[in-house]
Every structure is written in structure tokens, then in C-alpha cells.
Amino acid sequence: METNLCSTPLSRQQAQQLDLHLIPGLCNRLIAEMAMRNISPHQYIPFLSELTGRAPQTVARWIDPDHPGMPDLSSLAVLSIQFGTDVGWLLGLARERAPLVQSQLPPALLSQVCPDSPACASWLPPLLAHAQAHARHPVAIMRGKDMAPLIADGAPFFYDDTVRQVEGNGVYLLRHQDKLLVRHIAIQVGSGLLLRCENAHYGATLIRDRSRQRSLEILGKVVLAINACPL
Description:
Blueprint: H1 12-16, H2 22-36, H3 44-52, H4 56-62, H5 73-83, H6 87-91, H7 107-113, H8 120-133, E1 139-141, E2 156-160, E3 170-176, E4 179-188, E5 192-196, E6 205-207, H9 210-214, E7 217-225
Antiparallel strand pairs: 1-2, 2-7, 3-4, 3-7, 4-5, 5-6
Helix pairs in contact: 3-4
């Protein structure tokens, strides 16, 4: 259990002298949230206006490059809900991005956020929390049944694009012989690299030759897949 490192509150003078870096911290985080969603810079203002219901002139002040302003409390709460992230992160009071846990919202507010889904509090927040935990990673869509049922055809998956070589056994996004593939990769000592599908109807490929292994382009390691199974 974490404990508060400060056993006593700050004095009045210390509180007055706190440098919170709220500006331009909040501005930078709003831009980072939009960039993560592939919103182009010229669409920042229309996007924020649509997202929060605030006037374009109002949201423009939040991300003004020279003199950014702070949203009012109500707008800040809406930003937290719409981006699905904790207010502490937006304000710069947390070192790591934390997801907003919708199931902990007050019932009256939760009914507005999820008006048509009474089960929202039980199943959707954990799913969103998993996705938000990997939101810094790029997303791709699985094409084909090669990795079913682990990753279904059409399922989105997150991959860590900082992994550009085989780092132990795992599921990787890769390019091989000009084809974009998702495969289990197993290191077989003395033999080479085994590229294997999850679907048993598809064969495996053993790459023995060193030069062929070097031609294998690793694009990232798969960290999360979200499968939906229509009936």
C-alpha cells in the first residue's frame, strides 16, 4: 500500500510558492492525447470543440502556442471523461498516464456517460482500462484467420513498435517476403527461427539461414488484442 510521503501539509508560504507547471503542461497533454488519436494539427480546435461542446474560441485558448489558458472545472471534467484519462494526468499531477475508471463515477454521472448500457459499469470499464494501458502503442487490424482464435480476423491489436528485433519467444508483427504477417516466433537453438500461426490449419515456417533471418523485418511485439465474436 502506498503512503503519503509528506507527513504534514505544506505551510501557507510553501503552498503559495508551488510551481505546478499547469501551463503549458495541460496544453501539451491535450495535444499529446489528440496526436495519439492521429488528429491532424489543423483539426485540433474543431475536434476539441466537438468533443467538449465548447465554442471553438474557447478551446483554442487551451492549446494556444504562445499563451495557453486553463479550462474551467466543468470543461476539465468533460475532457477527462472524453479522453478516458485521469484528471491528475491532464493536470500534470501524475508521472504516468492513468485511465479514468468509469465504474467509479457517481451513479448519476455514470448514467449520463453510458445512458444505454446498464452493464457498462461491470464490463466496459475493465475493457477500456486494458486498452488505455496500451494506448501509447500503435494499433493494427488483423487480416486473415492465421492467428485465430488468439487474434480473430478483423480484430484490433496493439503492438510495441520499439521492439525491432526478436526478443525471446512471443507474438510479433513482421514483414517477411514482402508480406505483412502476425506470427508466433520461437527461437530454436541450433535450428533457427520458427514462425508459427495460432490456427492449426496453417503451416509453420522455419528460417534457418542467417541471411534470411536478417531479412526478416520485425515491426513490433503484440501486447494486446481485442476480439469480438459475432454470433
